[in-house]
Design goal:
- The protein is built from 10 helices and 8 strands.
- By secondary structure, the chain is α/β, with parallel strands linked by helices.
- The protein has 2 domains: 2-181, Nitrogenase molybdenum iron protein domain (Rossmann fold), CATH 3.40.50.1980; 190-306, 3-Layer(aba) Sandwich (Rossmann fold), CATH 3.40.50.1980.
- α7 links the parallel β5 and β6.
- The longest helix has 26 residues, at 161-186.
- It starts with a helix and ends in a 19-residue tail after the last helix.
- Zinc ion (ZN) binds next to loops.
Length: 325
């Protein structure tokens, strides 16, 4: 941590001398300001509301795990160059907090989950200090995050307030459609199959929003290794309740889910992988799944179908599963 702080300080000093030059290389077009987001979901949100006014970069790409992510020197340089910074908050970016706080002394740095009410937040077992950070998995919470970004951009750039309001209203309209699609298709899963098992505890808000029981093999952060006892517990439950499918996640190694499948088969049960879900990172850039709406459409559609519910194979708007668009 100390080393990191020194790096930040050094870069801040170097930047005071050379940033004017560096700003020319951010990729921002004429008249655009440079915004930085930590994860892709936050970048997508900011892009949708800032529109053409901002050039938005994210530090973590597809398949990257934000719980374990440590900022690189390039990341710190990007944060220093940025005019405004957005992150999820609720300790999702656990190893970046120090850097974000330092940067926050110099420029606007916003946690998009900041305005969620205390009574909305979940504190799963043994996590009394930190609420569960995976709020984007409930689209209605992401609508509140969109409001947060709208307010932050209006405060940062009041001249374009009307544009940010218009963009936010349009995007929130799309999110509302996504939320009601999710509720509709998830409701078609038969009562006895309403259980979602995945690699880590990313689905607590998802489960509450879309009415399905959730269990993760690992804890809330991917940092904790799944214990043998936890695996055995789950194997017993899966066999007893005849759970048909479990899910892997794009940003978490499959090891623990494979252990689960092996355990169930050893007891003579059958269990398959119901699909790969996007939890802490979106799909590949340039694909529909590489957007927040595409990622959640994929998750809702995949879970509903794998657990015996009804959902169109290509999702809410027929765009799932295509290669680059
Ligand atoms: Zn996570």
């Amino acid at each position: 941590m100390r080393l990191l702080s020194t790096t930040v300080c050094l870069l801040l000093m170097v930047c005071a001398l050379g940033c004017r030059k560096a700003a020319e290389h951010t990729g921002a077009a004429q008249g655009q300001y440079h915004a930085v987001a930590t994860v892709g979901m936050v970048r997508d949100l900011v892009e949708n509301i800032a529109g053409e006014k901002a050039f938005v970069q994210s530090l973590m790409g597809a398949g990257v795990d934000p719980h374990l992510y440590k900022p690189t020197r390039d990341d710190v340089a990007r944060l220093i160059r940025a005019k405004i910074v957005f992150y999820n908050g609720l300790y999702l970016e656990g190893k970046m907090i120090d850097v974000l706080e330092k940067i926050g002394a110099k420029k606007p740095v916003h946690a998009v989950a900041a305005n969620l009410q205390e009574q909305y937040l979940l504190y799963p077992d043994g996590m009394s200090a930190h609420p569960d950070p995976h709020v984007w998995m409930d689209v209605s919470a992401w609508i509140k995050a969109a409001r947060e970004v709208e307010q932050a951009l209006i405060a940062f750039d009041p001249t374009n307030a009307q544009l940010y309001r218009t963009n936010a209203a349009a995007y929130i309209g799309q999110l509302e459609q996504l939320d009601s699609y999710g509720k509709r298709v998830m409701a078609t899963i038969p009562e006895e199959s309403r259980i979602l098992i995945s690699s880590h505890d990313a689905f607590n808000y998802f489960g509450r929003a879309y009415n399905i029981e959730v269990m993760g093999v690992q804890g809330l952060s991917t940092e904790s290794e799944a214990g043998l006892r936890r695996i055995n517990e789950l194997v017993r439950m899966i066999v007893e309740r005849k759970v048909k499918a479990v899910f892997v996640e794009s940003s978490v190694p499959r090891k623990s889910i494979e252990a689960l499948i092996a355990g169930v088969r050893a007891r003579g049960g059958e269990l398959e992988i119901g699909g790969e879900l996007f939890t802490d990172a979106m799909g590949e850039e340039g694909t529909y799944e590489g957007t927040y709406i595409g990622m959640m459409d994929h998750n809702l559609t995949t879970v509903a179908r794998a657990l015996g519910g009804e959902a169109p194979v290509r999702g809410m708007q027929g765009r799932l599963g295509h290669e680059r668009e």
